[in-house]
Amino acid sequence: MSRNIRVWRFGQAPRLCQGTPGRNIKVRTLAAKTTATIALLALGLVFSGQSAWSYSVSGNTYTTNGSPSDVQAAVNAAPSGSTIFFTAGTYSWSNTTPVVVNKSLTLTATPGSVQIQNMLGPGSGFMMSLTSGKDGHIRVNGLNFLQIGNNSGSASSACLGIDRTDMGGPGSPGTQYTVIFTNCTFDSGGVWNYVGFAGANGLIFSHCVFKANNGLCGISFTCTKYMNYPGLGTGGTWNTPDTMGLGPDSTGLNVGDTAAGWCGVAGLNCTYIEDSTISNGTSGTFNGDDCSRIVVRHCTCIDTQLFSHGQDTGPAGNRHYEIYNNTMTNVNGSALGAQGWCSFRGAVALVANNAMDVSNSGKSSVNMQCQQVARNAGPGACQTGYPANRQCGIGWSARSSAPYGNPVVPSDGIGQVSDPIYVWGNTGAGGPGYANYVGVSNFYQDECGNGLLASNFIQQNRDYIVGTSRPGWVPYTYPHPLVSGGGSGGGTPAPTPAAPQNLRVQ
């Protein structure tokens, strides 16, 4: 699209000599052509307001009318480093082909002024797909996403599909770029689904709002691509070093392991959710699954349950979870079905320095399960001996040649090692003085018929440790250095550019 659209003003056809019939004919013909040209130009301008020509350009800012076709046209036209600005309004999107953003752009609006409603039903595809590449970060600021269409939990019919080009393994730099959300709202409404499905670690959410109507809330991290990384053999990136805090585990269990250069630059090994509000995700918030590495910190959690899958209900299971310096508040006060503030079905975690009310369900503030001993599902169904495959308190080390599970799950490879869940420094009515502070619960029925309980597999001072900090753990830099728009320091959300004021038809 031209950056300067000029509409030429046509004057009246010049008066030629009227004494000559031939000349009169030419004048009338020229006048007719001129009138037709004006009409066509006017018609073109009318249609341009309703098509891909609707977006306008001022410098490197492309202002869109908010329709999916216009947003896609602006994204296609904008060079990397540009801004896509949404005019204020509520937009209902029913596009079965997602709006695709796969280059470095900032999608922004004045916070609170734009709501994009997903009207899609099951199997329709994502409303918007965001995948960062090798030319810079994708930033999304000030947009509110609301799930309206009943997509029946379809993983491919949520508001957002989020990913980053970070294929690689230990020693491979991957890419240094990601997708960064600031000042956004993710609302699943009354629909039983997550608002977004993320295929990668290393995403950043800052100063956002995640809410639901007592159901599934936030983002599901279904990072299945990490299960088949080239050169890693069986187990995928689950069998790579911990990347908790500022570095790999330093307890001595993983001596010789290194996270340097793995999966991108420092700060992009894990997904960070910080300085955000999370509410009413009673059935699961920020679903950690399939080699995901998640950090929730400095957030306000209201009647919600931070959740992870194990290998019983996911092909790989969550790798690790860090939950620290949050405020966990019981506002509703009724039993809505949450398992507690934190619920883990497997792998490694830490829960530290949070202010906890008693949860709205009255259940354990920190809850652990081992469903693979009672549930006939997943790669390691019906485990019979300790340790179960990738259960709570089990990690990986290059020093270990032990396989996973009893019976063994061959696809998990080797490297099984004890790596306990640590819970410490928490305060409040739901903290250390609470009778249900930390607990272990069972799957609701024994599908395997072996009569085994989760407590046979998850035991205190072996698989989880209460009151002691994780040895060697130091939290990663807060606020995340990439939030403020640069590569170092800062922490305030990226500023919202003002709407262009100098657009005009000349």
Describe this structure in words.
The protein has a 13-stranded mixed β-sheet with strand order 1-2-3-6-9-12-15-18-21-24-27-32-34, with helices on one face. It has a ten-stranded parallel β-sheet with strand order 5-8-11-14-17-20-23-26-29-33. It is mostly beta strands and 506 residues long. The radius of gyration is 28 Å and the shape is globular. The chain is built from two helices and 34 strands. Helix 2 links the parallel strand 2 and strand 3 (83-86). The chain has helices at 21-48, 68-77, and strands at 56-58, 61-64, 83-86, 89-93, 99-101, 106-108, 114-118, 128-132, 138-141, 143-147, 160-164, 179-182, 185-187, 196-198, 204-206, 209-211, 216-222, 271-274, 277-279, 284-289, 293-297, 300-302, 306-308, 320-324, 327-329, 342-344, 348-352, 355-356, 366-369, 394-396, 416-418, 421-424, 438-441, 464-466. Among the domains are: 12-48; 159-466, no CATH class.
The radius of gyration is 28 Å
Strand content: 25-35%
Mean pLDDT: 81
Which structural class should the secondary elements be placed in?
A: mainly beta
Number of DSSP helical runs: 2
Low-confidence stretches: 1-52, 248-264, 486-506
Major sheet size, sense and barrel closure? 13 strands, mixed
Number of E-state strands? 34
- Reading side by side through the largest sheet, how are the strands ordered? 1-2-3-6-9-12-15-18-21-24-27-32-34
**Silhouette:** globular
What percent of the residues sit in helical stretches (DSSP H or I)? under 10%
Cα distance spanning the termini: 15 Å
